[in-house]
Write a structure and sequence with these properties.
CATH class of the largest domain: Alpha Beta
CATH superfamily of the largest domain: Metal-dependent hydrolases
Shape: globular
Number of strands: 19
Mean pLDDT: 91
Helix content: 25-40%
Structural class: alpha/beta
Largest sheet: 9 strands, mixed
Number of domains: 2
Bound molecules: zinc ion
């Protein structure tokens, strides 16, 4: 796979270092495995049982899965390679971002006063100049950032490497564009694996060429990754639906064909921006006609709905994902997930990309979501702290169909968890562990992050990669990208 990374001729030296580095990173990851006993922890399990919060222990086997979890002291006969005494600390499931575009991590602060389409243009000015090797480092940067903030699993909409002009509103036809030299998809998968992040890899289906070409590109990725017993961090392949951005129903038909043929889930940005709402809503019928509605279909954002759309979503068991911080930043509007949930629509929560959420902070995301819902319903009971945490962990896993692997601290699942110290910096005495965790903790209280029982973050330091090296690569590559963008903008 390393040999398939394309590069321009003047980067041979960097490429050799790059390959060497990735080999070393792989070796480093392997040395982290071993059994682990966590004891004296304030466990927030987010499991469905009654006893979801208790002081107790958790035993993680060498496969990185939870083998035992329970209240009180661990049984005396339980022996582990490593013991983590978490006395006084909260241990909770790693967060799941059910909607992310990780490669956009080095593009923050752009289009800071623009709505969705103006913001698209602000970052596309730079992104169009990236190579597939740049995108490896961009994705690595974003995946490390996610882990450092306690997000252990992400649904990642990958960059297809297509260059195209950006349109201004949902009614305009989007240009088909052209592919840059890849491999883009492979590099993004590799970057997330190298960082230590677990992920659902969601790929777009650019409508370049015939239907067979479009479906064939998905099939090639399917053959390489889904069928070849992939790394445990690679949870599944998915489709990045795109009907919102395309003005004819071919998009829905193609997505339906791939969903049926490969049995994959589809998350489609839909009813996100507040402009041309009627034109956007009309496209829902195209999805319905194509037959994509059902439990495999997730509508991303799903803000500007109407009664007909909602009732079809309920009838078919379709789902949605909610991005509270991103929707606020871009002035999209507010998805009324309290009402959606009452109707029976399953809701997942995402941090979207780091260019429109800017700080991929799940604690902040939970509170923005919680306060927005309580505000619009004028009711502090509209959404509970328990439900908000559930939505950002197990609820997201259920919507994505990965809840047998991740989302809660339960026997058989991967031991992906965070260690939070509410007394450092001191948030005061703890009366209710769950309430203090959701309402009073911040990234400063996040002390460690584990994926599959291996520590990947200690305080703010990532252990899977040399961050100085990542920063050097990002600075060098974004400087070049900015120079190219500026030279194109220059008159003459
Ligand atoms: Zn998005």
């Amino acid at each position: 796979m390393l040999m398939r990374i394309s590069r321009s001729n003047d980067h041979k030296k960097t490429a050799v270092l790059f390959v060497l580095y990735m080999v070393l990173a792989g070796v480093c990851n392997e040395t982290l495995a071993g059994s682990l006993l966590v004891k004296n922890a304030e466990l927030i399990t987010v499991s469905k049982g009654d006893n979801a919060v208790f002081r107790g222990f958790m035993f993680i086997n060498s496969e990185g899965r939870i083998e035992q979890i329970g209240p009180g002291e661990p049984p005396a006969e339980l022996q582990a390679d490593e013991v983590l005494d978490a006395l006084g600390k909260v241990v909770a499931p790693g967060f799941i971002s059910a909607h992310s575009h990780i490669y956009m991590s080095p593009l923050r602060g752009l289009g800071h006063d623009e709505n969705l389409y103006g913001w698209f243009r602000a970052w596309n000015r730079y992104l169009q100049h990236t190579t597939s090797e740049d995108i490896y480092w961009f994705t690595l940067h974003g995946a490390i950032d996610f882990l450092r903030n306690g997000i252990t699993t992400a649904y990642d909409f990958t960059y297809s490497g297509v260059v195209r002009e950006m349109v201004d509103d949902p009614k305009q036809k989007r240009a088909a564009g052209r592919f840059k030299n890849g491999p883009f998809e492979e590099n993004q998968i590799k970057a997330k694996t190298d960082a230590g992040l677990r992920f659902v890899n969601s790929v777009s289906m650019p409508e370049i060429g015939s239907d067979e070409d479009v479906i064939g590109r998905f099939a090639a990725l399917w053959e390489t990754y889904e069928k070849s017993a992939p790394d445990p961090q690679f949870l599944k392949l998915a489709i990045s639906g795109a009907q919102q951005f395309n003005p004819d129903p071919r998009t829905a038909r193609l997505e339906a064909a791939v969903m049926k043929k490969f049995g994959v889930i589809n998350q489609s940005h839909f009813l996100e921006s507040p402009n041309e709402v009627l034109a956007q809503q009309e496209k829902f019928q195209w999805y319905d006609d194509a037959g994509v509605l059902g439990p495999q279909m997730i509508f991303g954002h799903f803000i500007h709905t109407n009664d007909d759309i909602l009732s079809r979503v309920v009838e078919t068991g379709s789902k949605m994902s909610w991005q509270p911080t991103s929707n606020g930043r871009l002035g999209d509007g507010i998805a009324d997930v309290v009402t959606y949930r009452k109707m029976g629509i399953p809701v997942a929560v995402g941090l979207d990309d780091q260019s429109c959420t800017d700080v991929s902070d799940p604690f902040q995301n939970m509170r923005i979501g919680l306060y927005t819902m309580r505000g619009i319903h004028k009711n502090a009971k509209a959404l509970s702290v328990h439900d908000m945490l559930y939505l950002h962990t197990l609820g997201s896993a259920e919507v994505l169909g990965i809840d047998e692997q991740v989302g809660s601290l339960e026997v058989g699942k991967y031991a992906d968890f965070v260690v939070v110290d509410l007394r450092q910096p001191d948030t005061g005495p703890v009366y209710d562990v769950l309430a203090s965790y959701v309402l009073a903790s911040s990234l400063r209280n996040l002390k460690a992050v584990y994926v599959g029982g291996s520590k990947v973050v200690q305080s703010t330091k990532i252990l899977t990669f040399d961050e100085t090296r990542v920063r050097e690569e990002i600075d060098r590559r974004t400087n070049k990208m900015r120079e190219l963008a500026q030279s194109l903008d220059a008159p003459g």
